[in-house]
From TrEMBL:
Organism: Hermanssonia centrifuga
Pfam family, one: APH
Name of protein: Aminoglycoside phosphotransferase domain-containing protein
UniProt superkingdom: Eukaryota
Domain Aminoglycoside phosphotransferase intervals: 207-277
InterPro entries tied to this protein: AGP_Transferase (IPR051678), Aminoglycoside_PTrfase (IPR002575), Kinase-like_dom_sf (IPR011009)
């Protein structure tokens, strides 16, 4: 079964790629650079990227421990393992209407794994948030809702396995109990059973179980390609907040390393599972972007608040 999801994924990518083209493309220089990289052995590229990780902080300053600005308007990420994000970006770059970085290269050599993509010049949403007006936030919600609606309309399935963007097993911090035995799920009910665990515990049997069993037993949740880590830190406002207000540029969604084929409720659940209150401003934003998942968000909040199951 482990090989089968990859077959589904590749078929989906081929069929969707023919539907349209991304609204933004690599420049001619980057296309030449990308083609040149493809001619180099993985070991040579890895050595070059090793050198970039050492020189980048001196030239561009520090961004994050594993993220580096590099020449040609690119960003280099040092990954913990063969990156799911490369498969996710490769797929996303075939779709029109969803604004993401463009994949340039990925390489895995031994214990070294690198992802090279375009750098999105702009303002990180957590930094801009307090300066945004209600009109700004309304525009942001409409923009993100349009992008996710577009993504879902282009990838919706009733038969696709629940798996990572690379077709592999689900490994996610929201599901720490799957770490020792990560797996691909052929049925949504089986996956939902692992999302909301502990329902047969004495203190949950008569409270949370009646609330969640109808959701878990649903067999009609569509499976869609999902970001998997949709939070403010993964949203970039292009340019500055002031220039964004004057223009029509869409916001960009970055960091697709947890992407995969998931039930429609997954992105809103992942977007809010670290919120400590049920009525935060960010939760309200998520509810507006994914209004069809309000019931699942309500149930998940009850489970996180009362199940006594710790997500660590």
């Amino acid at each position: 079964m482990n090989g089968q999801p990859g077959v589904h994924f590749n078929k989906a990518r081929r069929s969707l790629a023919s539907d349209g083209h991304p609204s933004y493309r690599l420049s001619l220089i980057l296309r030449i650079f990308k083609a040149s990289l493809a001619l180099l052995p993985g070991g040579v590229r890895t050595f070059m990227y090793d050198m970039w990780t050492k020189t980048s902080p001196l030239i561009y300053g520090k961004i994050a421990p594993s993220v580096f600005r590099v020449p040609f308007g690119l960003v280099l990420k040092r990954c913990q393992g063969p990156t799911v994000e490369a498969e996710a970006l490769s797929f996303m770059n075939t779709l029109e209407g969803i604004h993401t970085p463009l994949l340039v290269d990925s390489v895995s050599e031994g214990d070294k794994n690198y992802l090279l993509s375009t750098w999105i010049e702009g303002q990180w949403l957590p930094i801009a948030w307090d300066d945004m007006t209600s009109s700004d936030k309304e525009r942001l919600v409409n923009d993100l809702k349009h992008q996710f609606d577009t993504l879902r309309s282009k990838t919706i399935s009733t038969t696709h396995p629940i798996c990572s963007a690379a077709g592999g097993p689900i490994i996610d911090p929201r599901l720490p109990w799957l770490r020792e035995n990560p797996r691909v799920f052929d049925r949504c009910q089986d996956f939902s059973e692992r999302v909301w665990v502990g329902l047969n515990l004495n203190w949950n049997r008569n409270t949370l179980k009646p609330l969640l069993r109808p959701i878990i037993e649903r067999d009609d949740f569509p499976i869609v390609f999902s970001h998997g880590d949709f939070t403010p830190r993964n949203i970039i406002i292009p340019g500055t907040l002031a220039s964004w207000r004057l223009g029509h540029d869409a916001v960009h969604i970055i960091d697709w390393e947890m992407a995969g084929w998931m039930p429609t409720y997954w992105d809103p659940l992942k977007a809010t599972f670290t919120e400590w209150e049920s009525d935060t401003e960010w939760t309200a934003v998520v509810r507006q972007i994914f209004p069809e998942s309000n019931a699942e968000l309500d149930a998940d909040w009850e489970w996180r608040s009362h199940s006594r199951i710790t997500i660590v």
